[in-house]
Design brief:
alpha/beta; 4 helices; 29% helix
């Protein structure tokens, strides 16, 4: 869910490659401009054969009857989708989230508790290096935080 950036489109390409010709990747993007850009880029690089795109917010009716091996959610407020996605996932299937702030992670943890376990949280850091083979070292300044990745597994009820 959420095709909102070049990173999200690249992520969709990775998922497409991972599931292969017989698998499917479903993506939802509500903003038309972003949807069109993502679709154009997926077409340009040949990643449309197994990617099903919807230009709308996530709607479980669009994927009714499908049980997913995994789900990745990259939206500002993922909380309303938790129970819906839980219903769509296969037993013990993983779910992943990309969240930019710690308070979003804290809120998400509250919503995940009855549905998901084995939770792991990773902070993404970006550290750039000087491309000098004689003096290879980090740049003098660093962006110390960019986002959080949260992963969990579906619990049985």
């Amino acid at each position: 869910m959420g095709e909102g950036s070049a990173w999200a489109t690249r992520r969709t390409m990775v998922f497409s490659s991972s599931v292969g010709e017989s698998g499917r990747v479903y993506t939802f993007e509500r903003e038309e401009r972003i949807f069109k850009t993502a679709k154009r880029n997926l077409e340009k690089f040949g990643f449309t054969q197994n990617v099903v795109m919807f230009n709308k917010p996530f709607d479980p009716a669009e994927v009714e009857g499908i049980k997913f091996d995994a789900v990745f959610i990259d939206v500002r407020e993922p909380y309303p989708y938790i129970s819906q996605v839980w219903e769509l996932l296969k037993p013990s299937a993983p779910i992943g989230f990309l969240l930019p702030t710690a308070n979003q992670v804290q809120e998400l943890l509250k919503h995940l508790k009855p549905y998901f376990g084995d939770i792991e949280i990773v902070e993404i850091l970006a550290r750039y290096y000087k491309a000098n083979p004689e003096r290879f070292r980090p740049e003098d300044t660093m962006v110390a935080h960019t986002a959080y990745l949260l992963f969990a597994k579906k619990l049985s009820t």
